[in-house]
Amino acid sequence: MSTTTVPRVTTRPAPHATGDDAWPQLVDAVRASGLYPTRAKAEQVTRTVLAALGTHVTGDERVDLARALPAEAARLIAAQIPATHRLAAARFVDEVAARTPGATPATARWDVSSVLSALPPLVGDDLVTRILAQLPPGYALLFGRADLTPATSSASSGGSWADRRRG
């Protein structure tokens, strides 16, 4: 009589980006995604966006994100004090703009999207889905995904992109 072993399923991803070349590969992915003219600019953008993200991802998702990223990126995430409330996506972009000298809301949105859309191949779609589940609506677009969540009133979400353009 033989027995079949069922693999144990875990919600924690194995580290995807390890080794000395993992951080440069992430920066290069951001540079390609954002069409940045220099590696230094791509690295500065990556650091700024990951530090801002580190304040808004909490719990197991924060731990799993840090585990799945290169060590340098993990330090940026882990070094942040979690925010007491999560910002709407538009306000998150504003926060990144405030951290970036000379940034406008448009350039900050580009920067955020360039970094966040580079993360799914490193951390896996399942973890991105879990992160998006804990963030307010609107972040999916920043991660390069369709935002299929029902619309909420602009008062509760901090305003939509269209509302902010009009006002």
Which short descriptors sum up this protein?
167 residues, mainly alpha, 59% helix, globular, disordered N terminus, disordered C terminus
- Mean pLDDT comes to 84
Biggest sheet details: none
Q: What's the shape?
A: globular
The residue ranges in which pLDDT falls below 50 over 5 or more consecutive positions are 1-16, 153-167
Q: Using DSSP, what is the number of strands?
A: 0
Q: Whole-number radius of gyration?
A: 17 Å
Strand content: under 5%
Please identify the structural class as seen in this structure: mainly alpha
From the N-terminal CA to the C-terminal CA, the straight-line distance is: 72 Å
- The percent range for helix content is 55-70%
**Count of separate DSSP helical elements:** 11
Order of helices and strands: HHHHHHHHHHH
Structure description:
- Helix content is 59%, strand content 0%.
- The model is unreliable at 1-16 and 153-167 (pLDDT under 50).
- It has helices at residues 22-34, 39-54, 59-68, 71-78, 89-99, 105-116, 120-123, 125-134, 139-142, 154-157, 161-166.
- With 167 residues, it is mainly α.
- The longest helix has 16 residues, at 39-54.
